[in-house]
Automatic annotation (TrEMBL):
<dbReference type="InterPro" id="IPR011990">
    <property type="entry name" value="TPR-like_helical_dom_sf"/>
</dbReference>
<feature type="domain" description="CHAT">
    <location>
        <begin position="962"/>
        <end position="1259"/>
    </location>
</feature>
<dbReference type="InterPro" id="IPR024983">
    <property type="entry name" value="CHAT_dom"/>
</dbReference>
<protein>
    <recommendedName>
        <fullName>CHAT domain-containing protein</fullName>
    </recommendedName>
</protein>
<feature type="region of interest" description="Disordered">
    <location>
        <begin position="33"/>
        <end position="58"/>
    </location>
</feature>
<dbReference type="Pfam" id="PF12770">
    <property type="entry name" value="CHAT"/>
</dbReference>
<feature type="compositionally biased region" description="Polar residues">
    <location>
        <begin position="42"/>
        <end position="58"/>
    </location>
</feature>
Length: 1261
């Protein structure tokens, strides 16, 4: 018996926690250099202070004091006590005692191994990584104490391997998996054949390979696990108690490989060995529930592939028995419940029995409740609960289910680290939930989130994975859904590509092949609707017919497949007119409705679709029974759709369409009123796609004109809703390019609304409609750049956040979609692109929420809301007037606004019609084109004609003199006659100012040049607008207020930047730009105004863009062009490359004052977007310039220097002060007016002379 005969020396003892990656976690260091084990002596008690730090945050190092009692104790007694009462001993104390007091290496090895067990037991409770790392250290120290060949070496090495396995299983660090496998392989090698421990180490080694496979998806690992378990089963004698466990574990390995590869032979093998396990398991055995549950899982997985109902029934039978045999305290109770919930879901999807889905949700809720926080299976169980909730939502449409599903699945994704093999499935599940919620809510952020998550799932799933086809199909469906919302063709192309790949990877015998074929068919149907290519329709129908053929009518998806096939036939009928297609669509939908449960969320859509086909047949045959039935089924669809559902506006529109057809056929007034009411409800819906609500609003407004009972208030309400929806459709979540394309489809809505308001004598509403519904892109840009000084004083936090969001939205709006260029993108690039798009949508949503908060602040109720007419009238210039020219197919009008007048002045233009204005504008466009004054160019080649005027070509469609005379006689003169205080001034003195704001075709006509010009004389015109007023143009009234605010000039003060580009590479030379820049420089120098010249190679796009921030005044003498295919591509052509409008729009130049663009087509605009004024002049105004001189078409290189010289002389009134002059921006319109008059009066009134001065126009103050 060991005794101490001397006191213990001072010991240096520390317990340092460390890990394989040098992170302090669990490495023990004890300095025993001055100490030897005791031999004899009395019992003594000493205290030793030492430090330990475990995996605590911020490197905390708490001190612990250990009372170390050294007394007479036989080691064997200690071992016995530990074996008898392992719960009470502290493993840290035990470890130190063993190292200090046990001299015998063999005994020390056994005790250290037991100490490792205690650390593992402690870890099972604490889940603290330091504890399991301490166990690994203890096991390793135990092995170090054993000599080679020791009989304990195999088991001790196996225990060390299991320590590493526990670490990897919990924390997922790859080196631990390698060490676990290496040590367990050593344990297998050291264990002799026939030893009962060999089975244990073989099975544990298989577990290690399986777990690494589950983390990494490496196929070699699962194959190795199967091979090891085959060996274990082979060497196990019949009748061995644990043979059923070995068999079921072998089955699980086959099951896992099947999930990865999809080979049906694997799942068949799993079922075979697991059935044998159940047969061999004793009824009273503790492991029987696990064996039953695993067999049930295998039957379920095979059902998902083959669709054999017998398999799902067996799955439920075995898993229900497992749940029955296991109490809630069973370690796998939560797993059994979750698996049984999956089987009920599978049967529900086949039979549609709502009791099954309710039971699935109940079981999975209980499974989550029984799963502790931090448990490795908690994420999967949360996701599975979400999947069950989604299924019920798909059936009932109950929003609470989908919201809960998203909540629990978001938590599941959050809990799983990157690189985990389960992450793709969790991402896909969460993406599916967002996809389903979008179907109901129509919230764009939901479908964007779905695509982002599903793209990650696809990207993280390796080729050959059994679930990859499902992930691809789901992602394809999300892209198709977003296409249906925003019409982005790149999304449709992506959908087809993904769906085709999904179908290609799906085996012919797979149970999900029908739905994937149908999804592909739906994408092709949508492309057919755009392309009109019959091959797309034929391919769609082929795939969807095969889907229907592969599916029995008792399957829950049968009605969905019939519905989708019916849609394909209807679309082909609409394009090709084949009546058999229409009849087939009706037959399919009627059969689908018969198969659809009454409480199915799909039923309203099915009813609506059959109503669509019946309406189409009515249009073909005139049979009133068809239109009556169409109305009946469509009304039922509305009745079955809950308030707030995203599809409700569409169903209401369709009911309205059916009633409208009935009215048009029978002239029944009640049918008209019913149509009006349904269109009104669709228009005013607060849910659904804004484009769908817009369809209702447009029909509502159009029908009101046909109803004898329409009141002015109703007409104004309908058009007001149209304007509101127009701004929603073109919201900040779209890029500038997307907004521009959307506005092309809605170019005349604002002018139609104004015309409607004027028809009921409401010029106030007409003004508000035009201000809110025109130049939307510029208005949005102005909103993002609005100073927030007042808000910053009230709430600086909100002001700063709004400012930051505005900057980000402006940047996001100018992003480009490379998919349009035809470039093949990698999945990484697609994910990056989607991340940008999703962040864009989230920013827009966050801005809306923030604006709602700001508007709750007293005094900010109207913050960034559309301006009322009173506010607009209060900001008018004190002198002059603003004249808005409204062109609509119903009527043409002018609205005049003058300071001091309470209401706008309405001037009907009785001699002008929309058709006449359009004919004049089109005739002028063709004439200019014939004279090379507005040349067109292809996408592949920028072709900008020289500024010199070319001889006329054949085919001119208009006489310029007659055009100007028409504008005078029938447009301008009637307006001047109606305006007070506008008088003729032949000497140019006391001329009034008129700011013209033209809409529609008026925007392309030279209103400022209207007059009678006799070709044979060189004198002033007999009558012309220039004798009465100085003309300027503005895109909208709102922008005029901002332009009137004088900037605080800093930096270079009134210094002017002069840019000349006589020899732009690839373009015609314009040598007079050198003369123009030099003359301008001299004129400015005479007046003491400094200027800087960039000429030729010095005038690059980059240098000019940078200099715009420093020079408030700019003069550009160069080529320019209007983008005919894309107005954002309009550009000023500088050296090396053009400076595009899309780049200028990104600039915010608060100190900018004036720019003279002596270049071609700088205010031309886009024929398709007359209400948006997308041209270089408007771009300069948006960037911050208060005054802009621009051109409507090409200008003469010969006359450009003369105009510039005269302009600057008039700008300063020919004064030559000694100390220099300031440049008054407000004088620029007058300066251009007199410069143009001077040029006009110095030349004849020939067509060529007119075309030389007419293009010069002024924008701004």
């Amino acid at each position: 018996m060991a005794k101490l005969d001397r006191p213990l020396p001072a010991l240096k003892i520390s317990v340092i926690v460390s890990s394989n990656d040098s992170e302090d976690l669990a490495r023990f260091q004890i300095d025993l250099s001055d100490w030897s084990p005791p031999t004899e002596g009395p019992s003594e008690t000493k205290s030793a202070n030492f430090q330990t730090w475990k995996s605590q945050p911020s490197g905390a190092h708490p001190n612990f004091t250990l009372s170390l009692e050294v007394k007479d104790l036989v080691p064997e007694e200690l071992i016995g006590r530990l074996q008898a009462d392992r719960e009470s001993a502290d493993p840290s104390e035990l470890y130190v005692y063993i190292q200090l007091c046990i001299p015998d290496q063999s005994t020390k090895a056994v005790m250290l191994n037991l100490c490792g067990d205690k650390f593992r037991d402690k870890f099972a409770t604490t889940r603290n990584e330091g504890d399991i790392r301490a166990a690994i250290k203890a096991y390793a120290d135990a092995i170090a104490c054993l000599p080679e060949g020791d009989p304990n070496l195999a088991n001790f090495t196996g225990d060390l391997g299991m320590g590493y396995y526990t670490c990897y299983d919990t924390f997922g660090k790859a080196p631990d998996a390698h060490d676990a496998i290496m040590k367990l392989e050593t344990a297998v090698e050291l264990t002799p054949d026939g030893d009962e421990d060999l089975l244990r180490w073989l099975d544990n080694l298989a577990n290690a390979y399986l777990r690494r496979f589950e983390w990494t998806g490496e196929l070699g690992d699962i194959s190795e696990a199967i091979q090891l378990r085959r060996v274990a089963v082979k060497i196990t004698p019949e009748g061995f108690e644990y043979l059923p466990i070995l068999l079921t574990n072998l089955g699980v390995s086959f099951f896992r490989r099947f999930e990865r590869v999809g080979d049906v032979a694997d799942i068949a093998e799993a079922i075979q060995v697991q059935q044998r396990a159940v047969e061999l398991a004793a009824e009273e055995s503790s492991y029987l529930p696990s064996v039953l549950a695993d067999l049930g899982n295998s039957f379920l997985r095979r059902f998902e592939v083959t669709g054999d109902m017998e398999d799902v029934l067996k799955s439920i039978e075995h898993q229900a028995r497992a749940v029955q045999l296991a109490s809630d305290k069973h370690p796998k109770a939560a797993n059994f419940l979750d698996n049984l919930g999956a089987s009920y879901i599978a049967r529900f999807e086949r039979t549609g029995d709502m009791e099954d889905i309710a039971e699935s949700i109940r079981l999975r809720r209980r499974a989550v409740e029984l799963t502790s926080s931090g448990h490795p299976f908690l994420p999967t169980r949360l996701s599975n609960l979400g999947n069950s909730l989604i299924r019920r939502f798909e059936r009932t449409g109950e929003l609470a289910d989908i919201n809960e599903a998203i909540k629990v699945q978001q938590e599941a994704v959050r809990l799983v680290p990157d690189g985990h093999a389960d992450l793709p499935a969790l991402l896909n599940g969460l993406g599916t939930s967002f996809f389903r919620r979008f179907d109901s809510s129509g919230e764009l952020a939901d479908i964007s989130e779905a695509i982002q998550l599903q793209q990650r799932a696809v990207h993280l799933t390796p080729e050959g994975h059994a679930d990859l086809p499902a992930w691809l199909s789901n992602l394809g469906s999300s892209f198709l859904t977003r296409f249906e919302r925003n019409g982005e063709l790149a999304d449709l192309d992506e959908s087809i590509q993904l769906q085709k790949r999904a179908v290609k990877l799906t085996p012919d015998s797979h149970a999900d092949l029908p739905i994937r074929l149908s999804n592909l068919g739906m994408s092709l149907t949508n492309r057919f609707e755009k392309s009109k290519d019959p091959a797309d329709a034929a391919e769609s129908i082929k795939h969807q017919q095969r889907a229907v053929e592969l599916t029995s009518e008792d399957h829950t998806i049968a009605h969905v497949l019939l519905n989708n096939l019916g849609i394909a036939f209807l679309h082909r009928f609409r394009e090709l007119g084949e009546v058999n297609d229409l009849s087939e669509s009706i037959r399919l939908w009627q059969r689908g409705i018969q198969l659809t449960p009454e409480d199915s969320a799909n039923l309203p859509g099915m009813l609506n679709n059959v109503g669509t086909s019946l309406l189409a047949r009515f249009d073909k045959t005139g049979d009133l029974e068809d239109i009556s039935e169409s109305i009946r089924v469509r009304k039922r669809a509305v009745e079955l759709t809950s308030e707030g559902h995203a599809d409700l506006p569409a169903w209401l529109n369709n009911v309205g369409a059916s009633y409208l057809r009935l009215y048009e056929r029978t002239n029944q007034q009640d049918a008209l009123e019913s149509a009006l009411e349904n269109f009104r409800l669709a228009a005013l819906s607060s849910t659904g796609a804004p484009s769908v609500c817009m369809l209702g609003a447009r029909n509502w407004a159009a029908l009101l004109k046909r109803s004898s009972s329409t009141s002015p208030a109703q007409l104004l309400e309908a058009h007001e809703r149209i304007i509101q929806l127009l701004t929603l459709i073109t919201g900040f979540e779209n890029t500038l390019k997307q907004r521009q394309e959307l506005l092309i489809q809605s170019s005349q809505l604002s002018t139609a609304a104004a015309a409607a308001a004027l028809s009921v004598n409401s010029p106030v509403k007409a003004l508000e409609f035009l201000e809110q519904g025109r130049c939307i892109v510029w208005a949005q840009l102005n909103q993002l750049r609005t100073p927030l000084d007042d808000l910053r004083m009230q709430d600086p936090v909100k002001a700063e956040r709004l400012s930051a969001i505005s900057r980000q939205l402006e940047a996001a709006g100018s992003r480009l979609d490379p998919r349009h260029s035809g470039v093949v993108l990698s999945m990484e690039a697609k994910i990056s692109l989607q991340n940008e798009a999703h962040n864009h949508v989230k920013l827009a949503k966050e801005r809306d929420a923030l604006l709602s908060e700001v508007r709750n602040i007293p005094g900010f109720e109207n913050f960034l809301k559309p301006r009322s007419y009173k506010d607009l009238m209060s900001k008018l210039p004190l002198e002059g007037c603003v004249v808005i020219l409204n062109a609509d197919t119903e009527r043409c009008d002018a609205i005049a606004l003058m300071a001091g007048h309470e209401e706008p002045m309405h001037i009907p233009l009785k001699k002008f019609t929309y058709t006449r204005a359009k004919r004049l504008a089109e005739g002028l466009r063709r004439y200019l084109f014939s004279r090379r004054l507005r040349s067109r160019y292809s996408d592949s080649e920028i072709e900008v004609e020289a500024r010199a005027i070319a001889p006329a070509r054949l085919g001119a469609r208009i006489n310029v003199h007659e055009l100007l005379a028409t504008l005078w006689n029938d447009l301008v003169q009637p307006i001047l006659q109606a305006l007070p205080l506008i008088e003729r001034s032949d000497n140019g003195q006391n001329l009034s100012r008129i700011w013209w704001c033209p809409t529609g075709p008026f925007a392309f006509l030279p209103i400022h040049a209207a007059g009678i010009y006799k070709e044979e004389t060189a004198t002033s015109p007999c009558d012309a607008l220039s004798n009465f007023a100085i003309s300027s143009y503005i895109p909208t009234l709102t922008i005029l207020e901002r332009l009137q605010r004088r900037s605080n000039i800093k930096g270079t003060a009134y210094q002017v930047l002069l840019v000349g580009q006589p020899d732009t590479p690839g373009l015609a030379k314009i040598p007079c730009t050198v003369e123009e820049v030099q003359q301008t420089h001299e004129e400015l120098s005479k007046r003491g105004v400094p200027s800087t010249i960039y000429m030729s190679k010095d005038a690059t796009a980059e240098r000019v863009m940078e200099s715009l921030e420093s020079y408030p005044f700019v003069h550009l003498a160069c080529h320019a062009s209007q983008g005919l295919k894309d107005p954002l591509e309009s550009a000023i052509h500088l050296y090396y490359r053009p400076l595009k409008l899309s780049e200028i729009m990104k600039k915010s130049l608060p100190e900018a004052e004036f720019v003279f663009m002596s270049a071609c087509q700088t205010s031309t605009g886009d024929d398709n977007l007359p209400e948006e004024a997308i041209h270089l002049a408007a771009g300069m105004l948006a960037a911050g310039y208060r005054s802009v001189v621009a051109t409507m078409w090409s200008i003469s290189d010969k006359h450009a220097p003369q105009i510039a010289e005269l302009f600057y002389k008039n700008m300063f009134g020919n004064n030559l002060p000694e100390a220099g002059l300031t440049m008054d921006v407000a004088a620029s319109a007058r300066a251009l007016h007199f410069a143009v008059c001077n040029l006009r009066e110095s030349s004849e009134n020939s067509t060529e002379a007119l075309l030389a001065w007419i293009p010069y126009v002024h924008f701004g103050v």
